Each structure stands twice: as structure tokens, then as C-alpha cells.
Amino acid sequence: MFIVTRKALKLALVALCVPTLNLAQTALPTIKIAMIETLSGPFANTGEAVVRNLTWGLERINSRGGVKLAGSHRLLSLERFDNKGQIEESLSALRSAIDEGAQFIVQGNSSAVAASLIDALNKHNEREPGRRVLFLNYSAVDPGLSNEKCSFWHFRFDAHADMRMTALMSVLKDDKAIRSVYLIGQDYSFGQAVAREARRQLGLLRPDLQIVGDELHPMGRIKDFLPYASKIKASGAQAVITGNFGNDLALLIKAAKEVGFEGKFYTFYGNALGSPSAIGEAGVGRVLAVADWLPNVQSGASEAFYLAFRERFPKPADDYVHMRMQLMLEALAQSIEAAGTTEPVAVAEQLEKARVSMASQSAAMRSTDHQFQQSLVVGLMERQGSPGVKFDVEGSGYGFRVIKTLSATQAELPSSCKMQRPVPNQP
After folding, report:
1. Which of 40, 212, 251, 408 is 20 to 30 A distant from 331 in Cα terms?
2. pLDDT averaged over the chain?
3. Phi and psi at residue 381, to the nearest 5°
4. 22 shares its domain with 153
5. Is there a domain that residue 427 lies in?
């Protein structure tokens, strides 16, 4: 749970220029944001990384007084629900969060969970219009969530898998030294979407390139990736394309290093959560990662943003900051203020047209499908201190040099969403 500390409260009051003894101000209830995420088990590190990012963002908003509503200011609080990586646990957590008064749900580290939450919220919001809830998604990137499964109640703030693949392919298509690739991923909706889009884009952009392996593995259950790494090396692949994240990615890369695989890794999440330290020197010049932002983006504002996060969370293991999560929270605060209420329909109507900027990064929500539109970058793993790599990752001594930047317009893709909206004036 996010706790409003005495220091944070004092900062908020100073920002408002009101007396610290204004008890009426401090007694107002917080606006609850319920995070439903994996906080135990093999992917607990991914959930804890989210907690740090959301905590930092809420502290920043609260330090300036929180959200202004009806002449008063309301602070934001984070309620944590551990779904243990399971769909049923997620649905149970959703019911508990609603019962506790949360009007805003955040989740992201599983597209399967996100799809289930969307279905549940569609039914709940229709059945109980007096207790509607919005879902803000920071990481679940199955393209279907903002296409055939798009929902008025769901907003995605991460680039979806097809957008991320497009960014990676903008680099791979020009790497003519690569003649063969191996596709490997987690066996669920997201991993399947990554493999499907990789095959499609390779066929269009690199028909000369041979796919020498294409497989999915159980998510979060493989303890030893050496058999997979051995198959990759034996296939003769010169590159691996994977959407793996968390321990599934770190263990895969570590195993590839152990068997002596010398090809490149085109990854969605190879820039943090243990992966750089796992592959070490063998990854220099060979591991690529796509993101909405990287610490070595060359701008003073970006550097200040990153250093501020590191000051708040100085442990090397905690070094995983997400720009999009900060933009998401700013968009929510902005939309609540613009709506003048926390009522979900009113807030959603403002979120649909939200435009936010931070640390030289600007982004906007697309109203037709609730897909955030933002620039994307591709980074290449290099030694810290080499040109373009001022900052390393997690104290590993390795960071990511930005080698490709796609503007929001270049990263944008069409949507097949046919969104059903609440009937006007319906309570």
C-alpha cells in the first residue's frame, strides 16, 4: 500500500500554501488506485518494479498537492493486490478493490490477466453503473486488447506488441549480416502475438531471411533453459527474437551465454530486470531492446528525470524506471481535474483526449481505441562509458545506447477497434 508519509504531506501542504494545521484539508479521503499485480513467485521482481514506479509518481503528484477537486485537494493512494500471476486471483482482487472503493485499477504484467480484467469490468460496469471502474494498463501489450477486445473502460499506456515489433524490425531489416533467426517466447496470448507478428513482418521486410526455429515454452515454469539454448545454437541462428520478460528472459540469455551462442538478441525487455548482468560481456553490441524511453536518451531533461528516480531508489537492483508509468499517472491526475470528479465515465472522456509531457517525452491518448501514442527507441547493449552510454543498468556496468528513434507518428499503427460507449445520460 502506498503510504502518505509525514514528509509527503508536509510537501503537499507547502505546495498549496495552506497552513499545516488545516485539518479539514488533510482529512479528505484519498483517491484510491488499486494495483493488481504479481508480487510473489517467479515474476515478483516485475511487480515490485511497478510498485517503485507508481510510488514515485504518486509521491510527485501528492507533493504538489494531489488533485484539485471542488476547491479542495485530494491526495492519491496506491492499494496493492497480489494476484500471484493467476487469472482467478486477479478477478478476486478486482472484486476486493471495488468493494474497498477503488474507481481506478492499474495492471500490466500479463496480457492474459489484462484480457480477463477487461471482460470482468465490461460486465461489472454494465451491471452496477453506480460503482463503475476504469482500467489503466501500463504493460500488457497483446495487440488485441486495443483492437478486437477494445473497451471504453480500458486505456493502454504501453506500445502494443506489433508497435514494438515494428521498432525492432526497423533495425533488423537493415542488418544484412543476419540471414537466419530463431523465434522463442512464452506460451500465452502475448508470446503468441509476438511470434505471429515477427513472422508477418519478416515475410514483408526480410523475405530472404530464414526462420530456423519457432517455439513457445511454458511461462514462468522453466528453471533450466540450457536445452532451449542448445537448440538455438545448433540451429545456426544468427539472431533470436523474443518477447520474454522477467526470469524467463534472464534465464534464457544466461543459458545462451553458457552454451556459447554468439548471435544477437532482438528483445522487448532485454534492458533490465537481471538480463544485462546475466549476459554480461557477451551481450556487448549484440543485445537489442525496444522501449518507450531509455536512460541514455540524449537530453538534459531526460537525464534529470533518470537521476531523480535513482536518488529516490538508489539500490542498483531497483534501477528500472518506466517513463510511460509516470505519464500514465500524470494523465490520470490531469483527467480527474479536468472532469471535476472521480466519476469514471467523466474521467474516461477526459482521458480519451489526454496529452502529457515529461522530460522531453510527449504522448497522447488515441480516442478511437484508447491506445497511447508515443515515440519508441531501440537500444544496443554496450559497456558503460562508451559513446552514448553514460548510464549502466542495475549496476551491471552495461547500458543501452539509443540506435533508433521512432516518432509517435512513425510508431502508430491502425486499429480495428469498434468501441461500444456508454449510452449518453445513462446513470
Report:
1. 40
2. 91
3. -70, 130
4. yes
5. no
